[in-house]
Write a structure and sequence with these properties.
The structure is a single chain. With 309 residues, this protein is an alpha+beta fold. Among the domains are: 71 residues, DNA polymerase, domain 1; 113 residues, 3-Layer(aba) Sandwich (Cytidine Deaminase, domain 2), CATH 3.40.140.10. 36% of the residues lie in helices and 19% in strands. The strands form three sheets. The chain has a five-stranded mixed β-sheet, with helices on both faces.
Length: 309
């Protein structure tokens, strides 16, 4: 701790000798603290900013006038092109990411970078890279983040309604695009695109979901509907409901689809029995059952190809 000596000059009041009266006051000052400027008596003009004190190499306290010029001199201005990093803020990083995407294509971006850029739209400011990496670590992959249940995403630290809505919007857009490509051609002649679409919709689901593809006389897709959602390993299916909906849509053929959250598409006994019941029920009305597909994680199984239908 050291002391600062302050001399204050005052005008002598009427009746006394002319001249200035000087007051000297020693104020304690601890190292590391900011010195508060003393409040002068009324009539003195206050400084707009607090007084800054500096230390000489010897430890002597210097007034602002005696402080070394290098302590107050601003850094020399340099053209942005000459700087190693023209921008150190997030806007510079975002601009570089956009240039990378547009110039080199989406294949040049890692999964976390895609997610990072997606979060740009929901978070105008800030670094979204740590959050993108944390989301992939938690849910397992970029696709799993998009497919994660809404309540789990909202419960994730760093995400809010805007960012969750952005994630779900991209997921829904990818589904619509994949489905549009499937609907353009007869399903049976467009098998690879059909599997790609169903994998996108079901592979990351955490519980079983039973869907039906309703086809017309030319095997074009009329509708793709989720009929039931069950548990992690079972979904109740009622043949009469399948028949009822097929009649409402005037469908002439069906493809049954469900997922196995375990990732293994091997059918269970219940899967085989249910498929036989549905085939019998729709067959009475002249509706064909083309196939039953089970979607796993990166794998799928066709009942027809396996001789189970």
């Amino acid at each position: 701790m050291f002391y600062i000596c302050i001399d204050i000059g005052m005008i002598a009041p009427p009746g006394r000798k002319r001249g200035a009266v000087w007051l000297r006051k020693w104020l304690p000052f601890r190292s590391g603290e900011t010195a508060a400027a003393p409040r002068p008596p009324p009539g003195f003009r206050e400084s707009a900013s607090p007084v800054a004190f500096a230390r000489a190499p010897s430890g002597e306290t210097l007034s602002p006038e005696r402080a070394p010029e290098r302590a107050e001199a601003p850094l020399p201005a340099r053209p942005p092109a000459e700087l190693p990093f023209p921008s150190t803020g997030p806007h510079g990083h975002r601009a570089r990411m956009r240039e990378k995407l547009l110039e080199r294509g989406p294949e040049a971006l890692a999964d976390y970078e895609l997610l990072e850029m997606l979060l740009f739209f929901a978070m105008p400011k800030g670094d979204t890279k740590p959050l993108a990496k944390a989301l992939i670590n938690r849910f397992g992959s970029f696709g799993a983040v998009l497919a994660a249940p809404q309540d789990q995403l909202l419960a994730t630290r760093g995400l809010g309604p805007h960012s969750v809505a952005a994630l779900k919007l991209v997921q829904a857009s990818s589904f619509r695009l994949a489905r549009a490509e499937v609907m353009e051609r007869p399903v049976l002649n467009n098998w690879e695109r059909l599997i790609g679409y169903l994998t996108a919709v079901l592979a990351e689901e955490k519980i079983e979901q039973f869907r039906i593809l309703f086809l017309d006389t030319r095997n074009r897709l009329i509708a793709d509907e989720a009929q039931a959602r069950g548990t992690v390993n079972h979904t109740p299916v009622y043949p009469r409901e399948v028949v009822k909906r097929a009649l409402e849509l005037h469908a002439t053929a069906l493809i049954l689809v469900h997922n196995h959250p375990s990732g293994d598409p091997t059918p269970s006994r219940e899967d085989v029995a249910m498929t036989a019941e549905v085939k019998q029920a729709v067959g009475v009305l002249g509706i064909a059952l083309h196939d039953h597909l089970i979607i796993g994680r990166g794998r799928h199984l066709s009942f027809r190809r396996e001789g189970l239908l």
